Amino acid sequence: MSNSDDYLKEYEKPVVWDEIGYEGNLAMGWGNMSGEEIVRRFWEAFVRGGYAGHGETYENDHDILWWSHGGVLHGTSEPRLAFLKKIMKETPGKFLKQVPRMFDEVVGIPYQTKVPEQVSFFDPVVYYDYELHYYTYSRPSNKEFDFEENEKFQIDVIDTWNMTVTDHGVHSGYTKIQLPGREYMAIRLRRVK
Asked: What span, in angstroms and rounded, lies between the C-alpha atoms of 121 and 87?
């Protein structure tokens, strides 16, 4: 998924990642991932500019895998993927592209957003009209933003596992947002005009 950006530049279309692994309990590593890992992979795929395909591979008494036969889902990822779908629908342009930021976060902005040619980790941070910051395995207790005084942003903290969106209000200038210090958190920034 980390090379989504290369495919976006080449084809100018969202990237679909098939077989990113399956939530389940099979003996093979690709088929025994936790719900948390599947949800993490879906969020990371989306923020990097793509979409992932879902399936389950739980062994059961009927010897039927959802992966190949469909039926009832038994895992913990499905409601959380539905929650992600809701966030996706609220995203301008419907798919994102990654922009460089700190190493502990993946930041996506709407694909159609114009980005300066030379953007690196060392350039001053430019905040776009919509940003989705995803922290994957990181567990920060807070995140700091240094908006211009004339910039205003609505800030929401998203708990991707517990499926909550917490409104942190509108901010400008230096802003410090408290986080719960858990994995799988995200922050959504939306410019207020």
From this structure: 27
pLDDT score for 68: 65
Task: Give kind and range of the element (H or E) at residue 171.
Answer: strand 164-171
Tokens 């959380």 sit on residue? 80
**Residues whose CB is less than 8 angstroms from the CB of residue 11 and which lie 6 or more positions away in sequence, other chains included:** none
Q: Are β-strands 23-24 and 56-57 bridged in parallel, bridged antiparallel, or unpaired?
A: parallel
Give the pLDDT of residue 124.
Answer: 74
Residue 85 has what pLDDT?
Answer: 95
d(CA 37, CA 42): 9
SS3 (DSSP) at 32: coil
Local structure of 8: helix, strand or coil:
helix
- Residue spans of the chain under pLDDT 50: none
Please, are residues 41 and 78 in contact by the beta-carbon 8 Å criterion? no
**Rounded-to-integer distance, Cα 16 and Cα 75, Å:** 22
DSSP symbol at 29: G
Rounded-to-integer distance, Cα 157 and Cα 120, Å: 25
Rounded to two decimals, what is the model's pTM?
0.90
DSSP, collapsed to helix, strand or coil, labels residue 11 as helix
pLDDT at 73: 81
What's the number of CA atoms in the CB half-sphere (13 Å) around residue 153? 26
Taking the CB of residue 25, how many other CB atoms lie within 10 A of it? 16
